[in-house]
Amino acid sequence: MPVLDPHPQDGQKKLLMVFGVILGILVLIGVVATLAAP
Fold first, then answer.
1. Which residues of 3-37 are buried (b: 16+ CB within 10 A; e: fewer)?
2. What are the tens digits of pLDDT across the range 1-34?
3. What whole-number distance in Å separates Cα of residue 38 and Cα of residue 10?
4. What is the pLDDT of residue 33?
5. How far is CA 17 from the centre of its chain?
6. Of all helices (H) and strands (E), which one includes residue 27?
């Protein structure tokens, strides 16, 4: 299976999942920073 597949089957879904995870981590960091702020 090539790395750069011109027509990936689950490429969009995987990319969306990665974006969701990153967004979730950023939100979590923001919440923790807000709670930790004096």
1. eeeeeeeeeeeeeeeeeeeeeeeeeeeeeeeeeee
2. 455 656 666 667 788 889 999 999 999 999 999 9
3. 44
4. 94
5. 6
6. helix 11-36
